[in-house]
Design goal:
Family: Belongs to the enoyl-CoA hydratase/isomerase family.
GO molecular function, one term: enoyl-CoA hydratase activity
Distance between the termini: 49 Å
Radius of gyration: 18 Å
Number of helices: 10
Strand order of the largest sheet: 1-2-3-4-6-9
EC number: 4.2.1.17
Shape: globular
Order of helices and strands: EEHEHHEEHEEHHEHEHHH
Keywords: Lyase
Enzyme class: lyase
Number of strands: 9
Helix content: 40-55%
Structural class: alpha/beta
Oligomer: single chain
Length: about 260
């Protein structure tokens, strides 16, 4: 067990590393502290030649509720915003290009940026009563964390666009049918599914698996980076809109937003 981090837990055993988001009181909302710890832990795993499988999960009642909206509201200007977006870009690129088989296990909520992180992995398992949502549209924003690219890879452009515009919440089986996840398990059986997939990978020629991953990363890395750059630019512009301000007010006041298209 690594004790270097305040908001993530990292445990290595043999060829498997387990990394757990650990801000359970906020449903593992991603603030600057959690993102910094997560990035540090991912780099530690990446540099470990003994590890060939990384399992990413969340502590408490859910995987991650997404970006910490309260902390995002405290960003004072474009420089602070730019710094956070650069951290998100590095986080997603590190996870996507990780020279390990990356497995994400979802229980409870995986929303917004939390869902983006899951999409950057190689294999996603969720429980049937999980709630998965790319719900930036609800506060007048666009997805970030490379989700335009990651959803396009899984769904194709047209279906990805519809999903982003709808902001719909998917439960596990529907997410599986849509191709957003690779397994949907009964409630409480997530760990069983993860263990089964770990054993499957450990019994396989993982060096060959990872060479295939390396080829695809090489083919797609520039496209992902371009998407991250466009998302950073677009997200800043969306933060200036009246619809975003209304979306945030409605979120704080717990009511339905009244968007004007401005």
């Amino acid at each position: 067990m690594s004790n270097h981090y305040e908001t993530v837990k990292l445990h290595k055993e043999g060829r498997v590393a387990r990394l757990q988001l650990n801000r359970p009181k906020s449903l593992n909302a991603l603030d600057a502290g959690l993102m910094k710890d997560l990035l540090g832990a991912l780099k530690e795993v990446k540099a470990d030649p003994e590890v060939s499988i990384l399992v990413l999960t969340g502590e408490g009642k859910g995987f991650s509720s997404g970006g910490d909206i309260k902390s995002m509201l405290m960003l004072s200007g474009e420089e602070q915003f730019s710094g956070i977006m650069d951290t998100i870009s590095e986080l997603v690129m590190t996870l996507y290009s990780m020279p390990k088989v990356v497995v994400t296990g979802i229980h409870g909520a995986a929303a917004g940026l939390g869902f983006s992180l899951a999409l950057a992995s190689d294999y996603i398992l969720c429980e049937e009563d999980s709630k998965l949502a790319m719900n930036f549209i609800g506060i007048g924003l666009i997805p970030d964390g490379g989700s335009h690219f990651l959803l396009q890879e899984r769904l194709g452009t047209h279906k990805a666009k519809r999903l982003i515009w709808n902001g719909k919440v998917f439960e596990g089986q529907e997410a599986l049918m849509k191709g957003l996840v690779d397994e949907a398990l009964p409630s409480g059986k997530l760990e069983d599914g993860i263990e089964r997939y770990i054993k499957q990978c450990l019994a396989a020629p993982t060096r060959a698996m990872l060479k295939t991953k390396e080829v695809y990363v090489s083919l797609n890395k520039e496209r992902l980076q371009h998407a991250l750059d466009l998302e950073k630019e677009g997200q800043w512009l969306m933060r200036q809109t009246g619809d975003h301000q209304e979306g945030v007010r409605a979120f704080v006041e717990k009511r339905r937003p009244e968007f004007k298209g401005n």
